[in-house]
Amino acid sequence: MNKSLLTLMLIALLTIGCTTETKTDPFKIGKQHIGLLTDSTQVKDLHLAFPTDSIVKNIMGDEFLGDINDIEIYDTVTRKQLLTLTPTQSLDSTATIKSIHIIDSRFKTEKNISALSTFADIKNNYKISGISTLINSIVISVNEINASFTIDKKELPANLQFNMDLKIEAVQIPDHAKIKYFMLYW
Q1: Is the pTM of this model over 0.85?
Q2: CB-based contacts of 97, cutoff 8 Å, min separation 6
Q3: pLDDT tens string for the chain (186 positions)?
């Protein structure tokens, strides 16, 4: 009798353990996912990745011109924009997402990098893959998470702000420089 009771309890525990779902953090950023959105999620399935959020598909331009129409994700409670998604193809429900502009600071990488982070946060947690100089900003690439972080040149020392030909190194960027844009690319 003890063996059958023990066996029954073991089966019950295994059944409960197998049916318990692991809840995914909707704000966790990984190399191939952001919350429930993955690099293989199709536009038609965005409602599965953002079940409680508002999805706004801007239909601008002409499908024959090849314009890509961004998709905006809004929090239905706060009515604030969370993300801007850029699909691989315009007006194609089977297209996947090629880039994500992270707007809401609740989205964080596994190492707690968010839109509110500084350059010091990035360099202390990830290997910087490259730094590109643009007219008004610099772009920090981190291949480890398929991300880029844009920092306004106003955050840099005056001698680095106006020379486009200067190759900016990580040691020249102040630790307190704030992120202007945080993007993921798939």
Answers
A1: no
A2: 37, 39, 41, 43, 85, 86, 87, 88, 186
A3: 566 655 555 565 555 555 444 578 999 999 999 999 999 999 999 999 999 999 998 766 555 555 678 999 999 999 999 999 999 988 889 999 999 999 999 999 999 999 999 999 999 999 999 999 999 999 999 999 999 999 999 999 988 888 778 889 999 999 999 999 999 999
